[in-house]
Structure formats: C-alpha cells, structure tokens
Amino acid sequence: MTADTTGYESEKYLHEYLLFHYGRPEEILPYSFGPREALGFPQRTVSECLRPEALPAHASALDLGCAVGRSSFELARHCDSVLAFDFSETFIRTAKILQQRGYLDYEIKQLANRRVPAVATVPADIDRSRVQFEVGDAHCDPQDFEPFDVVHAANLLCRMKDPGQLLGRLPDLVKPGGQLILTTPHTWLEEFTPPVNWPGAKSGQSDPSQALQKVLSEYFELLAEKDMPFLIREHARKFQWSVSLATVWQRRNISSNF
Fold first, then answer.
1. What are phi and psi of 150, to 5 degrees?
2. Is the residue at 200 inside a domain?
3. How many domains is the chain partitioned into structurally?
4. Starting from the edge strand earliest in sequence, which strands make up the sheet with 220-235, in order?
5. Domain of 90: which CATH number?
6. For residue 206, is it within any domain?
C-alpha cells in the first residue's frame, strides 16, 4: 500500500466519493431546496463535454484520476475500451468490485456517528467489460500505450504534485483529431501542489486558467469552455459546493516534441 499523504485511502473519503459518484439525488441533497444543478457531476463531465458524433468507430478512452469510476463507465457508453487510472489503491479496488458485481453496499453519514446503508449501482445499460481499472500515477502513467481518441481528467490537475508533467505529456496521449476533456475548480492548495508548480507561477502569470490554455493551445484547439458546479456531501448538514471550469479540446495534427 502506498503511503497515504492525502487521505484518499480512508474509509471517510471512500464513502463520500461513492455517494458523489453513484448517490441518488435525494441521497446527496435530502432537501427541497439547494443547488440541484450541481448533482451528477461525474456523469455530466462526459454527457455535457464529450462529442460522441466526432468519435471514430471502436474509439478508445483514457480516464485519469477516475476515483471510483462513474465517469469511466459513462465513457464506456461511447468507447469500446476505457483505461481508467487513479493513484488511490482503495478507489481502484472499489471500482473493480463495482465492475465485477455492478453494485456495492456502502454507508452514508448522517450526523455524528449515525450512518445509513446505501447501494452504489452501475447503470444496467452500460457494458462494464469495456473498462479496465488500474492503479497509476498521472505524472508518469501510462507510458507504453498507444494514444487515445479521448482523454478525460476531471478535477485532477489541482490535486497533482506537478501538473505540468501531465500537461507536457498530453499531446502524446491524445490522437490527432482526438478529444481532451479537462475540468478543474482551481482549488490550488500547498498540501497537494507546491505553489511553484501552480499554472503560471514560473512565468509570472497570475491567472491559472489562462496559463493552462496557453500551454495547451500549442497542440490543441479549444472547442468549448463552461462552468460546471458540483456538490460533495460530507453529512446531512454539511456540503462542499464548488464550480469547476471545464474545457474541451481537439488535438491538432502536428508532431509533439515531448
């Protein structure tokens, strides 16, 4: 087991992410009010960002930072093969169970130590056999694979020690004409990413979103940009509401020097 320096191997985070990825709307937000448009984020990063009409037959996808796999399964609706990576062994072990069984029992925290049972379920109309889950580090994996028709990385960059390493490798991971889907709430924290590695820090650019676009625009064309809210429930009376910036790119047909 890799040393857990982020907390993502804990049972607390596992159950929160199972709820975030697979919870029913009334389980995540059990009130008649609140930001319901922020629900279903892992599915929406695919349904609202992917352009399936532009995919070739037998398309392949790479899902980096897949957590417990909801977006990976959504990609399998459109791609014949999906390779899904996450640094957390706990998340990947859980995603593999969901792939094998199609469901997994877990618990939702209410208040204090009270918890209620819940079931995470992969939609029955998804071919789960199309997905392959692996433990991996987005800084360096995958290294020995052919490029993909789709690369999806949702809310990953600002949890990486050096996001520039991934940004520099993206041109080689996406096929010419292929799609790149990135979302980030730009919650840059020193505990995850040293400030010197924040986008734009080394060049003196103060807006990280513009810095990201400048790096990517050499090899990718920006197709779309949108704000995507998401809601993570900690317990029945505490939630994290955030807004991720989603950008959709198309790989230009030019050679990479990376």
1. -135, 135
2. no
3. 1
4. 131-135, 81-86, 60-64, 148-154, 174-184, 238-251, 220-235
5. 3.40.50.150
6. no
> Which structure tokens are listed for 105?
């029992």
Domain with 20, as residue range(s), is: 11-29+36-136+145-155+174-183+222-251
Distance CA(72)–CA(42), nearest Å, equals 9
Let me know: does 24 contact 70? Beta carbons within 8 Å: no
What DSSP designation does 87 have? Answer: S
Q: What residue type is assigned to position 66 of the chain?
A: C
Report the Cα 36 to chain-centroid distance in Å: 20
Cα–Cα distance, 12 to 15 (Å, whole number): 6
Helices (H) then strands (E): counts for the chain: 7, 9
Rounded-to-integer distance, Cα 28 and Cα 15, Å:
12
Q: What angle do CA 106, 2, 174 make, to 5 degrees?
A: 85
Is 210 within a domain? no
> Is position 195 within any domain?
no
Distance CA 242, CA 93 (A): 27
Per-residue pLDDT of the chain (258 residues), as tens digits, is 344 545 678 889 999 999 999 999 999 999 999 999 999 999 999 999 999 999 999 999 999 999 999 999 999 999 999 999 999 999 999 999 999 999 999 999 999 999 999 999 999 999 999 999 999 998 876 667 789 999 999 999 999 999 999 999 999 999 999 999 999 999 999 999 999 988 888 777 778 899 999 999 999 999 999 999 999 999 999 999 999 999 999 999 876 654
Rounded Cα–Cα distance for residues 120 and 221 (Å): 37
Residue 11: closest CA among 64, 68, 49, 63: 68
Work out the angle at residue 70's Cα, subtended by the Cα atoms of residues 95 and 249, and round it to the nearest 5 degrees. 125
pTM above the 0.90 mark? Answer: yes
